[in-house]
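RECORD TYPE: inverse folding
INPUT: structure tokens
STRUCTURE:
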């Protein structure tokens, strides 16, 4: 029986349309494709946690083997109808006991839902890649990070970060500028594994994201001018199309932890292999 994933969007309809125009897919659609690439034949249903749809019942959640939260521009540092809706949805996931995973905003939603806090990052943007991620003592033997080297880089694009994890959570990886790059959160019977970075994104998508955020990147001084940014993005996209090009990898300072899709998606593979499959064996899911 194929694995069943519920992929959760926290982009508004306008944000989803904008990303489709720029990249070809909304963030949840990208995640569904990534899961299908990792787990051929899997079932991926898409749902929004910010469009006013009522939170599904625990029984509905239990019709899935896992719930996966895609990234988005949602600002979990603010108290708004949108952020309250996202947090309420995540609390429903926790209470169902179904394993969950999230990237970037997904980690922030899971944190706030369980009583933690997010904050605006300073400096504001981590754009393109998180460099020099290192496992904490708790993360060195944690299955989420199995197979990662002593230090690694990962695709990243965010302006908020975790200020305080909920009680009993584990910080699994950090960088010098972002204290929580990976975490485990346990709350009301549920288990969430998440990362601040984006293992699901291709280099082409990162290149497109940089171009979408060009005004902010220029304002932050991360590129001298638009042409500089366009050249960098073009090299990234070219490396994505030809991941064995050593010249581009060298110019961009990237190694196989990013250039090779299997390595880049390590945490998603580990979530499926070390949390989803074992939970499925222990508690077979009813089909929704």
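DESIGNED SEQUENCE:
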């Amino acid at each position: 029986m194929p694995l069943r994933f519920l992929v959760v969007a926290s982009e508004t309809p306008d944000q989803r349309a904008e990303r489709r125009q720029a990249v070809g897919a909304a963030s949840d659609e990208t995640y569904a494709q990534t899961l299908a690439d990792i787990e051929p034949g899997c079932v991926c249903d898409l749902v929004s946690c910010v469009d006013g749809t009522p939170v599904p019942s625990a029984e509905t959640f239990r019709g899935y083997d896992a719930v996966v939260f895609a990234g988005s521009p949602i600002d979990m540092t603010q108290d708004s109808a949108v952020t309250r809706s996202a947090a309420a949805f995540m609390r429903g996931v926790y209470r169902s006991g179904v394993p969950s995973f999230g990237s970037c905003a997904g980690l922030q939603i899971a944190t706030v839902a369980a009583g933690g806090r997010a904050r605006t990052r300073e400096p504001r943007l981590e754009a393109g890649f998180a460099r020099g991620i290192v496992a904490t003592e708790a993360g060195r033997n944690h299955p989420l990070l199995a197979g990662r080297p002593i230090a690694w880089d990962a695709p990243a694009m965010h302006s908020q970060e975790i200020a305080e994890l909920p009680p009993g959570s584990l910080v699994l990886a950090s960088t010098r500028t972002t204290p929580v790059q990976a975490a485990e959160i346990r709350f009301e019977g549920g288990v969430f594994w998440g990362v601040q970075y984006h293992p699901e994104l291709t280099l082409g998508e990162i290149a497109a994201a940089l171009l979408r955020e060009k005004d902010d990147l220029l304002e932050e001084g991360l590129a001298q001018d638009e042409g500089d940014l366009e050249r960098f993005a073009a090299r990234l996209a070219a490396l994505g199309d030809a991941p064995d090009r050593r010249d581009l990898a060298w110019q961009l300072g990237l190694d196989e932890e990013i250039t090779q899709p299997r390595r880049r998606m390590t945490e998603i593979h580990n979530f499926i292999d070390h949390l989803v499959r074992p939970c499925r064996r222990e508690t077979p899911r009813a089909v929704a």
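NOTES: The radius of gyration is 18 Å.
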